[in-house]
Amino acid sequence: MNESMDGKVALVAGATRGAGRGIAVELGAAGATVYVTGRSTRQRRSEMDRPETIEETAELVTAAGGRGIAVPVDHLESDQVRALVERIDRERGRLDVLVNDIWGGELLFSWTDRLWEHSLDKGLRILRLAIDTHIITSHHALPLLIRRPGGLVIEVTDGTAEYNADHYRVSFFYDLAKTSVTRMAFAQAKELAPHDATAVSLTPGWLRSEIMLDTYGVTEATWRDALAVQPHFAISETPAYTGRAVVALATDPQVSRWNGRSLSTGQLAREYGLTDVDGSRPDAWRYLVEVQDAGRPADVTGYR
Questions:
Q1: What are the tens digits of pLDDT across the range 59-84?
Q2: Could you list the active site residues?
Q3: Domain covering 9-208+238-281 in this structure, CATH number
Q4: What's the sign of the alpha-carbon dihedral 42, 43, 46, 47?
Q5: What pLDDT, on a 0 to 100 scale, did the predictor assign at position 48?
Q6: Is 299 helix (H, G, I), strand (E, B) or coil?
Q7: Whole-model pTM?
Q8: Closest by alpha carbon to 141, among 194, 73, 205?
Q9: Which ranges constitute the DSSP H helices of the chain?
């Protein structure tokens, strides 16, 4: 498979940290020009109040071999998204890959409050951040994406359609947010197919994002220290693994076979022969069902 994306243009919406950053960097490593957006800049932090910035992400994209372009955007603001797409059109005249990875709801939901106990304001904010942002971005970006055949839309979520259909995702608002994104990919697939474009949803496994590493008090270099607290963290994966899955899709001349599908990093690793940065091949969603949810002791043998 030809993994070069020289001359291709991607928009990673929500690329400040986590999967979005990993995707942007791997697209850059494949040679793409990558517009990276988010609300956290060196001048101003978003409500997440984290140190990562979109400028930092753009620099990582360029260092990896691509061209990173940071654009501050609040994807709830339609005018800002419209201006972003107009800029991409003006500067590049094309959009080959759209990645909707906007989220930012980690500090808003409760794992224990039931619907009637949960803050309604925070719950509705979660849905706006997770759903409205994706709709607004696709609404403005798809006319540019379908201008050339072969465009690809990737909706990043948490959980495969199969897993989420049978498992309550702990919180009403979180559950609704993540299942809705999968359905958005399915709906876009139906509308994009006549334009020779493809839409899929993609879920990482247990992601070693900056926030997750901080939660366990570890770094990427010391992440295995967290196994003393949570042994199942052994199945976790880096954001680069998700990025490599996106590049594999973006460079697959037969990517339309996936149109409308719900995909996982582990599934695509098997399909395309991908590995994580350590050479392993985590298959988190199969592990969750067969080991963690089944109450078995942590053992990743055969799962990475």
A1: 999 999 999 999 999 999 999 999 99
A2: 174
A3: 3.40.50.720
A4: positive
A5: 84
A6: coil
A7: 0.96
A8: 73
A9: 18-29, 54-64, 78-92, 120-127, 133-145, 161-166, 172-192, 210-216, 239-250, 265-272, 284-287
